[in-house]
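Appendix B. Chain record.
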Amino acid sequence: MSEPTPQEKKEFRARLEQARQKHEQSSWDGRLQVERSGALGRAWRLSVEIIAAFLVCGGLGWMIDSWLGTKPIFLLVFVVIGMFVGIYNVYKVAKAMNPEDFEE
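Structure tokens predicted for this chain:
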């Protein structure tokens, strides 16, 4: 096998550079899509954490009120507890997602 000519080297470098640019562009588009979907997934998870705690505690309070015959007392107490539990759950999940943001 002989040494490639300068013209062949130049053509090879041009093709190589074109392939690198195409690869960088496609991998950047993929990373951007993953970052977008990752952020959306995190937002949904945090929202579900708050809503689930609120609904579960509210439902529990409503059931206790129905069982004991007391109307809004336990419902209100458990709704407030659900709000605090939901906020605490969001704090824990956010801390697990970004531990460097919670360092002191």
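Further analysis of this model is presented in Appendix C.
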